[in-house]
Amino acid sequence: MAKILAVTNQKGGVGKTTSCVNLSASLAANKQRVLLVDMDPQGNATMGSGIDKHDQEWSVYHVLTGRCDITQAITPSADAGYDVLGANADLTAAEVELMTLDHKESRLKDALHRVASQYDFIMIDCPPSLNMLTINAMVAARGVIIPMQCEYYALEGLTALMETIAGIRETINPDLHIEGLLRTMYDPRMSLTNEVSRQLVSHFGEQVYRTVIPRNIRLAEAPSHGKPVLAYDRNSRGAVAYLALAGELVRKHDIKNLHAKSERKTGTH
Questions:
Q1: pLDDT for the residue 79
Q2: I want to staple 43 with a disulfide (CB 3.0 to 4.6 A). Which of 25, 53, 114, 208 is the partner?
Q3: pLDDT averaged over every residue in the chain
């Protein structure tokens, strides 16, 4: 079954969508089968994957509201190397409609269950706010990846997000955990960046990814071309960083799988 990961931060402008798109592309480059789910009505992850959000007959909105099956709404992205369950402005209406539907928090989880065996990773790009769309993503996911800039206000926002994750784990999804904290737009020349980075590692330890994502003009340019940075400029610092992050994520899950198999064998005997 796929490893379902939500990429989220209630604070905007931290590289959330950039990270979801480019990590998905880098996982695909590592021969992983990937589905990117865009849960943001802005549809930036959809466009950044080379799919026109205005030209979708079916989208995640139709899946959440039961208007179509998830298999009808998934579109392969040739440039990105992964599949996309896209979003556009229609998704704004889903927030209101979901409130009147049964199992409103688990609509995405139920839909993804139908296709989870076809993928190694399912990456969910969340909107930069806590609403019913974000809750659906966190109920569907097993892990949360938190992109964040190493700046003063980032730590304050992180506390609020941790409380949200803890609340969802206690009430709806006991399997939810923090997969990792990702330091984005990293500039080691700034003393504040280094100080906040040290605080993160000191407090969260192994939960902080070793890979950091640098400030990189190619990362900023790639979305306007409808491509992940890997397809836009494979040799850029941004592309190299996300490839390293994908390798770190795959190794982490390989180790988890080995431990799980070892525990099952021990339990059997």
A1: 86
A2: 53
A3: 93
∠ CA 230-147-106, rounded to 5°: 100
The pLDDT of residue 268: 55
Mean pLDDT of 145-157: 85
**Spatial separation of the C-alpha atoms in residues 203 and 188, rounded to whole Å:** 19
Q: Is the pTM of this model over 0.85?
A: yes
